[in-house]
Amino acid sequence: MFNTAEWNQWIQNLSNDSARNLTRLMDTYQGMLKALADGRVSPVGLRDGFSDYVRGQTNAYYEETIRIYFDFVCELLASTAHYSDRLMAGPPDGTGNGDDHLLPAPEKPQLDDWTQWFFVMANYASAQNATTVARFETLLQRVILDGVSPEAVSDYVRSVMETSGPDYFQTLITLSYQLFSRLREMNDRYSAEYFQRVLGEEPSPPPLASRLTTFGVSLSGPPNTLATTTIELSNRSARVTDVCCAISEFRRADGHGESFMPFLLVEPARLRLLPGEKRRVRVSLMLASELFETDHLYSGSLLVKGHDNEDLLVYLDARATYDS
């Protein structure tokens, strides 16, 4: 599920990367102005260089843009279909796993024009929609003919939302971040190449963008006990790295109730890693009964900055239960 820490980090990463690349482009632009003032580049040469670059790179830029959106839409449709299929499966009755009804993702076509891309994705979306509708009709028949109660269906849907909903929304966050990051990186790269070609320089690689790696861990135990786990952090760079950790508020995974800040201890919350060093961080969560209702899933997150030159977002799934 979405929370403030995740969105703030997502926006901050995009802003930081954009600022770094804008500074780099402005330096190159200043170099171009200096070349104009020195007479090394003429206004006519600048104009013709722009026209030649656009003509030479239009097809590559167009195809790369289409493929970025193709990957995004394909992953989005597959993730949504998977979640919808789980919801439409209904209470277990021995009819099989809902995943068996999902269609495989389409192969990447030869994208010569946008109509071909649209045709492939439209067909895939229509087929997935037809599969979901068929699953819903089957569920209605079970309610009407087989005596499955609406209450049982409601309980099942609530259970799926608790167990699968957080993963689905986390996938949406990651896909959106990847889409904007790839588009930003592509535009920055083409802009830098244009300026450098005009100046007769060899294109240089763009600066390393901030990466966001995500994974999830579970914290469970009896009510009013301390649930713990450990996370390994490493520094594979050639310099000393300072690492810091921050936590978000928690909330029930089905969206019920208000968010809250539980007692959660990260040891150590700040540390310094030498080149090649690895350290384990302990995460401890108090499953207080006044905050964590028994057998309900709650979601939060832990943000780690400085781990292997990337940002690490750890999704924390918490449950107070007597079955753990």
Given the C-alpha coordinates, what overall shape results? flat
In which range does the helix fraction lie? 40-55%
SSE-based structural type: alpha+beta
Overall structural domain count: 2
Please provide the ordered H/E string of secondary-structure elements. HHHHEEEEEEEEE
Main beta sheet: 6 strands, mixed
Q: Count of helices?
A: 4
Count of beta strands = 9
On the 0 to 100 scale, the average pLDDT is: 76
User: Which band does the percent of strand residues land in?
Assistant: 15-25%
Q: Catalogue the unreliable spans.
A: 94-100
What gyration radius follows from the Cα positions, in whole Å?
25 Å
Based on the structure, what is the oligomeric state of the protein chains? single chain
Distance between the termini: 23 Å
Task: Report what the structure shows.
With 324 residues, the chain is of the alpha+beta class. The protein folds into two domains: 4-198, no CATH class; 212-320, Immunoglobulins (Immunoglobulin-like), CATH 2.60.40. It has four helices and nine strands; from the N terminus they run H-H-H-H-E-E-E-E-E-E-E-E-E. It has helices spanning 4-38, 43-89, 114-145, 150-198; strands spanning 212-221, 226-234, 241-247, 251-252, 264-267, 270-273, 278-286, 297-307, 310-320. The strands form two sheets. Strands 1, 3, 4, 6, 8 and 9 form a six-stranded mixed beta sheet that branches. Helix 1 (4-38) packs parallel to helix 4 (150-198). The chain is flat, with a radius of gyration of 25 Å.
